[in-house]
Amino acid sequence: MSVLHPLRLEPIFKSMLWGGTRLPGFVRYPAPTTDAIGEAWMLSDVDDSISIIANGALAGRSLREVIAAHPAGIFGSKIPADGRFPLLFKFLDARKELSVQVHPNDAQALKFKGPGHRGKTEAWVILDADPRTSRLYAGFKTGTTAASFRAAMATNTIPETLHAFTPKPGDCVFLEAGTVHAIGADILLFEVQQTSDITYRLYDWDRVDAKTGQPRPLHIDDGLSCSNFDAGPCHPVQPKLVGDRHDVVSCPYFSIQHWHGDNPVSVGQAGACRVVVAIQGQGTLAGEPFQIGDVVLLPACLGPVPVVPNGSLRFLEIGLGGVA
Ligand SMILES: [Zn+2]
């Protein structure tokens, strides 16, 4: 029998000038700092932030070590060529706005940063938002061009070039690489993205970083060369009901399904790696407590495992797509 089991990982907290105080309580881990915390990386194979297994026989080992020892057990037949986990999972607590930013696609990441770098297509699932103050910025307003964006930079009116809306809990926004975006204030969300940390900042709301006394650097030329001016506004996705769950996103990098109910259900699939994220309520997964804020990696070799809600439970099941 394999040593692999459902893997829970220790959160890696990231201090950010726009962050807040909610994440340690949300994921039930002590805050490592009194600084504002913007992100909790729940499953990461990014070089300087590799997750550590938190439970079971593999507790204390790094995700990368476990993948190296059991590639087929984790991924089934679709083992990534570089041996790295291809997705990064985070919770974000935006007390203030994040910068207006854009990420490259795979080809641009390779060109700008060299071999081993990937682009960043990402998706957000909104967990909490303030109906009066929260805004998401996703894609350009129709008609925005590189020239009109640069003109808006000169007149300090960048937000006016972006499509913006007030998000509600449960909304999912799918952002292909090249979609200019910003997460506004007072939003708690879950994010899934390609394993990449390449961000080009186009506008930072004229802020000064209290730590340095300086504005954070911008990356206008690289950012604009990655920005897709043809895609237009990016709206929340319309989920499709398939069987007992909703298909939310299906792209070459990942799929997201959403399940909500109070009856037992199974998650995971024989031969495929899945990640399950509880976003409301509580219950058990494979006999262990499973509640809001939990992110659990199901190795391919486990196959389906039971989820038993205790009351009403809502979770996301995420599949790895396009792994070469
Ligand atoms: Zn982003």
Describe this structure in words.
There is one protein chain. This protein has 324 residues and is mainly β. The chain folds into two domains: 7-226, Jelly Rolls; 240-320, Jelly Rolls (Sandwich). It is built from six helices and 24 strands. The protein has helices at residues 23-27, 63-69, 71-75, 106-113, 146-154, 220-226, and strands at 7-8, 12-20, 37-43, 45-46, 49-50, 87-94, 100-102, 122-129, 136-140, 162-165, 172-175, 181-183, 187-194, 200-203, 240-242, 245-250, 254-261, 265-267, 274-280, 282-285, 288-291, 295-298, 305-309, 313-320. The chain has a seven-stranded antiparallel beta sheet with strand order 1-22-19-24-17-16-15, with no helix packed on it. Strand 4 and strand 5 form a beta hairpin. The relative contact order is 0.18. The model has no long low-confidence stretch (mean pLDDT 94). Bound molecules: zinc ion.
Brief rundown of the structure:
The chain is mainly beta and 324 residues long. It has helices at 23-27, 63-69, 71-75, 106-113, 146-154, 220-226, and strands at 7-8, 12-20, 37-43, 45-46, 49-50, 87-94, 100-102, 122-129, 136-140, 162-165, 172-175, 181-183, 187-194, 200-203, 240-242, 245-250, 254-261, 265-267, 274-280, 282-285, 288-291, 295-298, 305-309, 313-320. It contains six helices and 24 strands.
* CATH fold label of the largest domain: Jelly Rolls
Structural class: mainly beta
Roughly how many Å apart are the termini?
27 Å
Instruction: Identify the strand order in the major beta sheet.
Output: 1-22-19-24-17-16-15
Rg from Cα:
20 Å
Q: How is the quaternary structure best described?
A: single chain
